[in-house]
């Protein structure tokens, strides 16, 4: 006794649906040879490897009106800023030196910044790894800084800063008009700890 054509069609439909519903598994990566290990090496412009969370300064302050600004793990003592601007093409070079004291054992910390990606960042004249995203310049120190220890961060930036909602670094043709701002404006062209409580 033959199988009706409808039964063949129904069987095909069910089997196709079951295959389509089976999740696709990602390919299994090849196993590492015995005795090998993957090591992440920090390089210029990239954050270093994972470190103990207790060595990472907070990435925000506690201001109720500006909760995303500010950074923890250190207390800024001084800022030293050198600015050179070419009025022909508006290219600007900034050298920012921040003297600070660690308020905890510190291996990584952040500054408020969302401008041109820096060319170099150093801590006590030693190259430091860094990333810049979400309004933060995150720096991994080449050494663990003891609580209470002083350290010097130097940042070099080259490019053309742009205005932020009409404020900050403002240009008029080839003529520099102004460079100013407070709290959420300054970090668009100058790395800083913008917590209002850390003047």
Polypeptide structure, described:
It is a single chain. The protein contains one helix and eleven strands. It is mainly beta and 199 residues long. It has a five-stranded antiparallel β-sheet, with no helix packed on it. Strands 3-7-6 form a three-stranded antiparallel β-sheet, with no helix packed on it. A three-stranded antiparallel β-sheet has the order 9-10-11, with no helix packed on it. The termini are far apart. Mean pLDDT is 75; it is low at 5-45.
Low-confidence stretches: 5-45
How many E-type strands? Answer: 11
Largest beta-sheet details? 5 strands, antiparallel
**Fraction in helix:** under 10%
The amount of beta strand, in percent, is: 35-45%
Computed CA radius of gyration, to the nearest angstrom: 26 Å
* Shape annotation: globular
Question: Termini separation (Å)?
Answer: 92 Å
Q: Overall mean pLDDT score?
A: 75
Side-by-side strand order of the widest sheet: 1-2-8-4-5
Structural class: mainly beta
Gist of the model:
This protein has 199 residues and is mainly β. It is built from one helix and eleven strands; from the N terminus they run H-E-E-E-E-E-E-E-E-E-E-E.
Key terms:
mainly beta, 199 residues, 11 strands, 3-stranded antiparallel β-sheet
Secondary structure layout:
Blueprint lengths: L4 H17 L52 E12 L6 E11 L3 E7 L7 E4 L2 E2 L1 E5 L2 E10 L4 E10 L3 E2 L2 E6 L2 E5 L20
Antiparallel strand pairs: 1-2, 2-8, 3-7, 4-5, 4-8, 6-7, 9-10, 10-11
């Amino acid at each position: 006794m033959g199988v009706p054509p409808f039964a063949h069609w129904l069987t095909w439909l069910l089997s196709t649906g079951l295959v389509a519903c089976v999740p696709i598994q990602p390919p299994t990566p090849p196993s590492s040879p015995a005795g090998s290990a993957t090591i992440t090496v920090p390089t210029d412009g990239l954050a270093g490897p994972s470190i103990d969370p207790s060595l990472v300064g907070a990435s925000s302050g506690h201001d109720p009106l500006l909760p995303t600004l500010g950074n923890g793990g250190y207390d800024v003592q001084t800022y030293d800023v050198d600015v050179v601007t070419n009025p022909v093409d508006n290219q600007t070079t900034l050298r920012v030196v921040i003297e600070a004291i660690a308020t905890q054992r510190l291996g990584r910390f952040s500054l408020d910044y969302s401008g041109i990606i820096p060319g170099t960042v150093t801590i006590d004249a030693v190259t430091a790894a860094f990333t810049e995203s979400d309004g933060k310049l995150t720096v991994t120190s080449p050494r663990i800084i003891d609580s209470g220890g002083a350290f010097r961060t130097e940042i070099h930036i080259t490019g053309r800063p742009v205005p932020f909602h009409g404020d900050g670094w403002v240009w008029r043709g080839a003529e520099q008009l102004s460079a100013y701002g407070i709290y959420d404006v300054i970090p668009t062209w100058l790395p800083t700890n913008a917590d209002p409580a850390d003047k």
